[in-house]
Write a structure and sequence with these properties.
About 20% of the residues lie in helices and about 35% in strands. The chain is α/β, with parallel strands linked by helices and about 220 residues long.
């Protein structure tokens, strides 16, 4: 069973991180069901295990939290849906690469519900969209990042997870080099011209989840 929880308001980062780690430990001990949390954070930056000091452009803009997940600097804030995935990877095949790939495909399936084509790029983490409305210097469409993925495993239980930009203040990303990638930008569903709400995205996440984890988890009936 996967327990879905919607956390209202802006969830404080340190307390939420501690609660997430405690839940992952309980899952590993067999004392709690797998869980997916849907939430937003106040504006902040997180530094993954590969973060480079030069990529923190404005250290005083928002609080910066070092975290144990993979990846580099990321931004979280209002208008961005954070999806914390506390799932038993051992029970799901014990293949970390496959698990991450399924998370990526889950994001792509979710974006497709809004007729957005999300894509994966070799050597670039996250999910990307082409921008025909913004051609690059070579005349080819620019590519912007719309979703980030970064997980950590403890005793084969995943935590951290995914963030998808619905309608964040995109200027807030200016304080970092997101995921260490300088030559591409960031976008959101609303920036793409789609009047998508958090509730719309949550419904799409729930609807598409079983496509990637069919037979392993029942379809949740509510977030």
């Amino acid at each position: 069973m996967v327990e879905w929880t919607h956390i209202p308001g802006l969830a404080p980062y340190p307390e939420t991180l501690a609660a997430m780690e405690a839940r992952a430990e309980a899952i590993a001990r067999g004392e709690a069901d797998e869980a997916i949390w849907l939430l937003e954070h106040p504006p902040l930056y997180t530094a993954g295990t590969s973060a480079k000091a030069a990529d923190l452009v404005d250290a005083d803009r928002f609080p910066v939290y070092p975290v144990g997940r993979g990846g580099q600097y990321t931004y979280h804030g209002p208008g961005q849906r954070v999806i914390y995935t506390m799932l038993d990877v051992k029970a799901r095949g014990q293949d970390v690469r496959c698990f991450v790939r399924e998370l990526e495909r889950w994001v792509i399936d979710t974006l497709a519900e809004f007729n957005v084509t999300g894509e994966i790029r070799q050597g670039r983490v996250g999910v990307w969209v082409q921008r025909p409305d913004r051609p690059g210097p070579d005349g080819q469409p620019a590519e912007d990042k719309i979703a980030a993925i970064g997980i950590k495993l403890r005793r084969w239980v995943s935590f951290h997870g995914i963030s998808i930009n619905v309608e964040p203040d995109l200027s807030h990303f200016d304080g970092i080099v997101p995921c260490g990638i300088r030559e591409h930008g960031v976008t959101s569903l609303v920036d793409l011209g789609l009047p998508v709400t958090m509730a719309d995205l949550d419904a799409a996440l729930i609807a598409t989840f079983p496509r990637r984890f069919q037979g392993l988890c029942p379809t949740p009936d509510a977030a």
